[in-house]
Amino acid sequence: MKTVNEMKKKxxxxxxxxVDSTVTAKLLLDAGYEVEGVYMKLxxxxxxxxxxxxRVLHVAAYLGxxxxxxxxxxxxxxAVYKPFVESYRQGLTPNPCAKCNRQIKFGKMIEYxxxxxxxxxxxxxxxxxxxxxxxxALDETKDQSYFLFDIDKKIIxxxxxxxGEWRKEDVKAYAAKxxxxxxxxxxxxxxxxxxxxxxxxxxxKKHIPVDMPGxxxxxEGNVIGxxxxxxxxxxxxxxxxxxKGAHEPHYVKEILPETNQIVVTPHSALEVRxxxxxxxxxMDGRREFACDVKxxxxxxxxxxxxxxxxDGKALVKLSEPVFGVASGQAAVFYEDDRLLGGGWITTAE
Length: 349
Ligand SMILES: Nc1ncnc2c1ncn2[C@@H]1O[C@H](COP(=O)(O)OP(=O)(O)OP(=O)(O)O)[C@@H](O)[C@H]1O
Fold this sequence. Notes:
Blueprint: E1 10-14, H1 19-30, E2 34-41, H2 48-63, E3 66-71, H3 73-89, H4 96-115, E4 120-122, E5 127-129, E6 134-136, E7 159-160, H5 168-176, H6 182-185, H7 200-205, E8 214-217, E9 223-227, E10 242-243, E11 251-256, E12 261-265, E13 271-282, E14 288-294, E15 302-308, E16 314-323, E17 330-335, E18 338-348
Parallel strand pairs: 1-2, 1-4, 2-3, 4-7, 8-12
Antiparallel strand pairs: 5-6, 6-18, 8-9, 9-10, 11-12, 13-16, 13-18, 14-15, 14-17, 15-16, 17-18
Helix pairs in contact: 1-5, 3-4
The protein binds adenosine-5'-triphosphate.
């Protein structure tokens, strides 16, 4: 009988039908792993899943591996989709990808890896890890570590991210050289939120009335204009509402869902120096520490001091001001290229 060391390690690859997970599966197979693919059906979009799964089966046939479709649409609806709609209803700006990563991609998919006896779970995310911490991707323009702040640290040793060392253009060039995968190299990039086809407003419109004119207030509470409905706005937005006689640009500072009002100010009044977060998830046991924080995906890091409180809350003091911090978004901590964790923003001042 073979010993464990001699046995091939089995890896489950999350295959979306896109170029990244396709190349991921190929690289792992070439590296000597036993590879099996899974396509997760996450939501209802007519024709979408059939097309994606057809692509996954094409890749699987080329690689000579098995690939299954896993219907997780009910789980996705409860864990990601409904909270997304509910957040906007409450005047928050949600981050569905981070929720999906915790509960679905690195939650349900790892459960499925257990079911099929896979040692590892791999995806085409642009991140790396060192066994304890998730690390930023070498291709900084593609780095997705921000969206992984909430995953369970216990599973990190079981994850494989072969593209963490790659640049996206090299991934495409690699696929272009293989006849069976050539069409994947020129495929158009998928949208940032997989279930949003056009805009988030179109998603919300299926569930709640979003076009309902309301008042624009200044920070003293005076009515200074009008807007299209509070769900059209996120903190920091400067367009799409009317302010009487304004000579300088105004930005959304606060959203008041109960009264369908938005509060706007000139830019300087949007400065935030302190943030409170909840649902804190950290990759190590620190309670009080200095690090960098990102308050949005596409934004620069700012040095900060974090103090973890009871009930998974924390206070984040920023060493320089940031603008346009939205409740519901994630504050994500870094130390060099190491992702330390993060939490969900509740208040910013
Ligand atoms: N529906 C799905 N089923 C299985 N795995 C998925 C699915 N969607 C995404 N993944 C996995 O998560 C990774 C990152 O997802 P993301 O949506 O960021 O994809 P992407 O960068 O467009 O990658 P790809 O080119 O593989 O579609 C994918 O590379 C894939 O491994």
